[in-house]
């Protein structure tokens, strides 16, 4: 009977000794013969197995997880992300000193024994029996490699990691069987290469290449003797022998490795002694993991790329499959991010708004015709501290953004105009556009029902001076609210919904826009990326292209490279070329003479629209050139800050407008992004002048723009003036009650007689002459 411990029964060490000693000495393991049921040895425990032969024949070795590199469009690294920092290298790319050091300290008989080192086991059993515990292990490098494969397969699942590392006979049996298989299939050099690539060296470094970079900022092939000994010594206990946190213990361990190498003849005693005298000479590279470390303020774009990968079925049928590929890493992801554009966006935001301000800004630039996202930035940096955030204000909730987006204000109005033009309304379409009115009712919806203003809700224009009638060009330039609500009432809600569907304009949470007239005023939350991409369709003459962030992906599996399929932009016609060209012309007017004058670019064709929302909680500018579209939002993510009496970026604002805060951000961002580049020219259309030439003299004295007033008898007045009053509109004097016309376009700043640009109509009776408007 074996000698028992005072506690009764065999100790775990004695049990292991009996099992391993009997099985190995009998040759059962090496021969692959079935072992007796472990229960017969009194070894039944959680994690054990019934029979050696019942284990699967082949060890499944998952590809080693490696770091993923995210690059910009020019191949520069934006960020490195990984679940485990590892770069797999071949044995020829690992210093010979490193190879010898790891063998010397972990398994000095590695090249002499098979999968199991019988002498090592007996030595360890004897040593452990003398100490009464487990003071020395007997696992070969091959067995350690197998154990690391189990850990690698467990990933970041704590339960699986515990199962892979638990001290049970069952796990040892698995290691033994698979070690035999590995020895037969791979051979010593490949086993050593695999081991050096899989094992953990502390400080988040997996594999010798990552360890060399972490501790010495060099490649594994360049490690010298003392550096190799240090790394080899860490493996036994990365926390105890951490050279950064405990250099004294690490030095002692390094010197043990050096002495062992001398004993084995790997180096001379003189070489080992000299190496022992050297300082650790660490040159630490701090871990740079994750999008938080991204360059050029591209952290949010980096996270967007990750969200795209995890959310797009092109990378795997289920999110679990996609996450497995992402965590495995080894990816080189080339993105659409254009360095010049990204730098310009970040600099512009930085110049106009501080991260400590009560409000934030977000900007996104997109290339018309391709859907490529060229830049994405915001004023609140990516992070977890004060004035930082994890929320990407530029995108929808499915890609890490706001749950609802942000109300867009008047930047929505071009979509209504495009819908009306597609329905055949002329660009000279006129509505009464009073300063204040109830929402027109009823309004037709897509499902055949009608929207009815049961609450008698009202709306008004920005100022009391804004009252019609207006034509489309002037209404767009002045951003007249009542005009566009009347337009929706005229054409119905369904054409507007069809247009926004074609432009993929959805709310921040992905929901379709509601069928209510208030959408004309930008009442619903939409993301800057959605707005920039939609406006890009105007620039590309009606072709909408879905946004993309990834150009190509290659994946390294072992030392092999393969290409992965990536999402492609899908382009489709959202409106006719004529409609898009008309919108371009209208939005040029916004910049030339409307609300967006302060934001306009002076050296190239550009168009855009301002927008603000109720209580000044949001301000927007969305604009474009033929080759670049951009959206800028300024506001509070919580939607609780009203931008009155506020300082933003060191500048005081009595109240914020789309033109005075997001407008300059857009202007500077676009200017920098386009510097040195040809931005092309718009296709535009001729729009009749918005100066309304009042109607021909009609008995009621309604004069036209040439100043032709009429009297009760329909007698026309004189149409004097240069070109019949073309520039300033006519005035009709309709006798005792005749009313003169309003001013048309601004009088040119040259000294000329007033009547040179002004028609004169003289009508009798009750003539009402109406001139043109700006």
Automatic annotation (TrEMBL):
Domain Penicillin-binding protein transpeptidase: 362-635
Location of the region described as Disordered in the Swiss-Prot/TrEMBL record: 596-616, 677-774
Compositional bias ranges of the Gly residues kind: 716-743, 760-774
InterPro entries linked: Beta-lactam/transpept-like, Glyco_trans_51, Glycosyltr_51/Transpeptidase, Lysozyme-like_dom_sf, PBP_transglycosylase, PCN-bd_Tpept
Gene3D superfamilies, per the entry: Biosynthetic peptidoglycan transglycosylase-like, DD-peptidase/beta-lactamase superfamily
Domain Glycosyl transferase family: 75-261
Pfam families for this protein: Transgly (PF00912), Transpeptidase (PF00905)
Catalytic reaction(s) noted: [GlcNAc-(1->4)-Mur2Ac(oyl-L-Ala-gamma-D-Glu-L-Lys-D-Ala-D-Ala)](n)-di-trans,octa-cis-undecaprenyl diphosphate + beta-D-GlcNAc-(1->4)-Mur2Ac(oyl-L-Ala-gamma-D-Glu-L-Lys-D-Ala-D-Ala)-di-trans,octa-cis-undecaprenyl diphosphate = [GlcNAc-(1->4)-Mur2Ac(oyl-L-Ala-gamma-D-Glu-L-Lys-D-Ala-D-Ala)](n+1)-di-trans,octa-cis-undecaprenyl diphosphate + di-trans,octa-cis-undecaprenyl diphosphate + H(+); Preferential cleavage: (Ac)2-L-Lys-D-Ala-|-D-Ala. Also transpeptidation of peptidyl-alanyl moieties that are N-acyl substituents of D-alanine
SUPFAM superfamilies reported for this sequence: beta-lactamase/transpeptidase-like, Lysozyme-like
Protein name (record): Penicillin-binding protein
Lineage per the UniProt record: Bacteria, Bacillati, Actinomycetota, Actinomycetes, Kitasatosporales
């Amino acid at each position: 009977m074996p000698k028992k411990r005072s506690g009764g029964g065999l100790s775990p060490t004695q049990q292991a000794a009996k099992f391993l000693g009997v099985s190995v000495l009998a040759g059962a393991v090496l021969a692959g013969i079935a072992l007796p049921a472990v229960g017969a040895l009194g070894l039944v425990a959680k994690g054990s197995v019934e029979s050696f032969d019942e284990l699967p024949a082949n060890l499944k070795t998952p590809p080693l997880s490696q770091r993923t590199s995210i690059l910009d469009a020019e191949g520069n690294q934006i960020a490195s992300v990984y679940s485990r920092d590892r770069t797999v290298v071949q044995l020829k790319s690992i210093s010979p000193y490193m190879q010898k050091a790891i063998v010397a300290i972990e398994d000095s008989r590695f090249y002499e024994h098979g999968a199991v080192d019988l002498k090592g086991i007996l030595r360890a059993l004897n040593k452990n029996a003398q100490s009464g515990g487990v003071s020395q292990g007997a696992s070969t490098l091959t067995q350690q490699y197998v154990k690391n494969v189990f850990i690698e397969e467990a990933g970041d699942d704590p339960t699986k990691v515990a199962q892979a590392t638990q001290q049970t006979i069952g796990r040892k049996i698995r290691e033994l069987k698979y070690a035999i298989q590995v020895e037969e299939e791979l051979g010593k050099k490949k086993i050593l290469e695999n081991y050096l690539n899989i094992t953990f060296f502390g400080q988040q470094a997996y594999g010798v290449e990552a360890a060399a970079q972490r501790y010495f900022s060099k490649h594994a092939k360049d490690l010298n003797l003392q550096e190799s000994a240090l790394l080899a010594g860490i493996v036994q206990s990365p926390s105890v022998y951490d050279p950064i946190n405990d250099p004294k213990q690490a030095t002692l361990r390094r010197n043990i490795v050096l002495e062992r190498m001398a004993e084995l003849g790997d180096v001379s005693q003189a070489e080992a002694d000299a190496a022992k005298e050297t300082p650790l000479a660490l040159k630490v590279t701090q871990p740079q993991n994750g999008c938080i470390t991204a360059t050029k303020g591209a952290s949010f774009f980096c996270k967007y790329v990750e969200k795209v990968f995890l959310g797009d079925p092109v990378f795997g049928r289920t999110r679990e499959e996609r996450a497995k590929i992402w965590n495995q890493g080894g990816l080189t992801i080339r993105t659409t991010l254009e360095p010049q554009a990204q730098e310009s966006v970040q600099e512009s935001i930085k110049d106009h708004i501080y991260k400590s301000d009560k409000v934030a800004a977000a900007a996104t630039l997109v290339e018309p015709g391709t859907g490529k996202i060229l830049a994405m930035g915001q004023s609140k940096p990516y992070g977890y501290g004060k004035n930082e955030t994890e929320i990407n204000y530029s995108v929808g909730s499915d890609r890490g953004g706001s749950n609802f987006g942000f109300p867009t204000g008047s930047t929505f109005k071009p979509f209504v105009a495009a819908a009306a033009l597609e329905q055949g309304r002329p660009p000279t379409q006129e509505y009464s556009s009073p300063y204040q009115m109830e929402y027109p009712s009823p309004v037709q919806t897509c499902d055949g029902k009608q929207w009815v203003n049961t609450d008698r809700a009202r709306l008004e224009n920005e100022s009391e001076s804004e009252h019609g009638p207006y034509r489309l060009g002037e209404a767009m330039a002045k951003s007249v609210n009542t005009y566009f609500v009347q337009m929706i009432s005229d054409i119905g809600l369904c054409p507007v919904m069809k247009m926004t569907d074609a432009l993929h304009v959805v709310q921040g949470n992905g929901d379709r826009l509601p069928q209510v007239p208030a959408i004309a005023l930008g009442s619903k939350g939409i993301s800057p990326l959605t707005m920039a991409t939609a406006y890009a369709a105007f620039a590309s003459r009606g072709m909408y292209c879905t946004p993309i962030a990834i150009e190509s992906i290659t994946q390294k599996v072992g030392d092999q490279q393969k290409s992965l399929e990536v999402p492609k932009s899908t382009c489709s016609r959202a409106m006719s070329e004529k409609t898009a060209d008309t919108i371009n012309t209208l939005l040029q007017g916004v910049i030339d003479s409307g609300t967006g004058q302060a934001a306009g670019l002076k050296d190239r064709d550009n168009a855009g629209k301002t927008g603000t929302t109720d209580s000044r909680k949001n301000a927007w500018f969305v604009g474009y050139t033929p080759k670049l579209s951009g959206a800028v939002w300024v506001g509070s993510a919580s939607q609780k800050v009203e931008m009155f009496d506020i300082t933003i970026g060191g500048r005081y604002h009595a109240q914020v407008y789309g033109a005075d805060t997001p407008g300059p951000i857009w202007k500077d961002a676009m200017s920098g992004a386009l510097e040195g580049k040809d931005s092309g020219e718009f296709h535009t259309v001729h729009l009749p002048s918005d100066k309304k030439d009042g109607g021909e003299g009609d008995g009621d004295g309604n004069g036209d723009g040439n100043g032709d007033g009429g009297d009760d008898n329909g007698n026309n007045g004189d149409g004097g003036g240069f070109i019949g009053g073309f520039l300033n509109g006519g005035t009709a004097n309709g006798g005792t009650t005749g009313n003169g016309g309003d001013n048309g376009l601004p009088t040119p700043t040259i000294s000329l007689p007033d009547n040179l640009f002004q028609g004169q109509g003289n009508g009798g009776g009750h003539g009402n002459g109406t001139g043109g408007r700006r």
